[in-house]
Amino acid sequence: MGNRIGEKCGIFGVYGKGFEAARLVHPGLWALQHRGQESSGIASSDGKKIYLHKGMGLVAHVFEEQDLKELKGYLAIGHNRYSTSGDSKITHAQPILEKISSGKYIALAHNGNLPSVIKLKEFLKNKKIPTQGLNDSEMITKAIAVYMKKGLNLEKAIGKAYPLFTGVFCLLVMDEKKLVAARDSFGIRPLSIGKLNGGFVIASETCALDTVGAKLVRPVKPGEMVVISEKGLKSIQVEKGQQKLDVFEFVYFARPDSIILGRSVDQVRQNLGIELAKENNIKADVVIPVPDSAIPAALGFSKASGISFEMGLIKNRYIHRTFISPEKHTRGNIVQLKLNPMKHAIEGKRVIIIDDSIVRGTTSKQIIKMVRNAGAKEVHLLVSSPPVKFPDFYGIDTPNQKDLIAASQDTKQIGKELGVDSLHYLSYEGLIKATGLSEDLLCTSCFTGNYPVDIGERKKEISYDV
Predict the structure, then answer these.
(1) What is the set of domains in the chain, with CATH numbers?
(2) 408-434 burial, b for 16+ CB within 10 Å, e for fewer?
(3) How much of the chain exceeds pLDDT 70, in percent?
(4) Is 170 a catalytic residue?
(5) How many CA atoms lie within 13 Å of 153's alpha carbon, on the beta-carbon side?
(6) Helices (H) and strands (E) in the chain, counts
(7) Residue 378: its pLDDT value, please?
């Protein structure tokens, strides 16, 4: 993806008497690592007390055996963070712990983003609660706590505070005895319920349910709150729901082995490649994906076009977001650290590169240069989604609109800037067709500028003259 978009967050919750819940949340977070690599945390409870451990970095860096030993109990929630609101520092790592009364706490994990926090801020200000330095997730937690301090139970407090959450959210909230999952009324981000040995698992993606051996039951519905306690699972429809899943989950974010809205993400991505091949008839010798997210689209393209598929770029799987700045001579070569061309697959050939999207274009430029340097005779870039012209306000870290290359340049200009022989995007119709879903079930705001969840005061950041 041309200059990667930052991921969203991943959340995972477990409830089951007799479970060592944190030990199930831990592999669940591993499976959701692609949704956030900045910080990780788990809160657990044994019915009496909430335990918490969180830290900066990947799941592998944050948890050791001793940490898991101390996270006692039969219910737990976990979170992988990619900052979309608030700075990236340990103070904003989740789950967030909030005191209700002596010895009583709640813990919260949030995936999504509230583009407008005016309502929340005013509510907290009226209650004399300072909001300085708090991000949206922390304000959500404090709002729920306000109602719990008045004596409401966990789900009633969430239901009461729910109208203040103006934006996109999948929430996992727990007290000492129960686990609650809630989803915004448009269901922009995925959230699924699984069953495991008489207990329940809630996860951002179904691939994480598979990891712990849980069986998928169903998604949490848009506008629904699911309460899991010793009484089992109870569903409360808080607001009328209207499904508008972010299509970017299919294009890039979700893991290919996940199922969303009944569709295999891998299959949808292959379909994107098939549609791309139908729309473009380019003579070439080889098709290569930008790994990993564009691999299924390139396979689909290869099958449909008959052009042979090669892994022409190899990814170093151990490079994640680097917290340590590289030495100045290699700083510009961070793409080279992540990808290396296979010269034998490229040299002297007419090459089609398949990528899933172009955002700023800087990474694409470096990849094309790399493929040219490896001896490609021609380089054609085909993108398995339409041009990204509008920023996201729903929990993906996309740049300002002015930094989106397709917001200021047409396809011909972008192709020239990237240095390709030709550039082709998948049409919007092709994108919708590949999902096999009705367009009205999807949020396509990055491509269309049509934002189903009101973005409030952020509207002024958008120009439609693109």
Answers:
(1) 10-243 (3.60.20.10), 264-317+335-442 (3.40.50.2020)
(2) ebeeeebbeebebbebbbbeeebbbbb
(3) 92
(4) no
(5) 8
(6) 17, 24
(7) 98
User: Per residue in 357-391, pLDDT tens?
Assistant: 998 898 899 999 999 999 999 999 999 999 999 99
Buried b or exposed e, range 73-99, using 16+ CB within 10 angstroms: bbbbbbbbbbbbbeeeeeebbbbbbbe
Of residues 113 and 345, more confidence is placed in 345
* Per-residue pLDDT band at 397 (split at 50, 70, 90): low
Q: Is the dihedral of CA 277, 279, 285, 288 positive or negative?
A: negative
Structure tokens given for 364:
């694409």
User: How many residues comprise the chain?
Assistant: 466
Distance CA 451, CA 55 (A): 34
- Give residue for tokens 């380089």: 379
Amino acid 82: pLDDT: 78
Residue 334 has a pLDDT of 66
Question: Which ranges in 150-264 belong to alpha helices (H)?
Answer: 154-161, 206-211, 248
Q: How far apart are the first and last CA of the chain?
A: 21
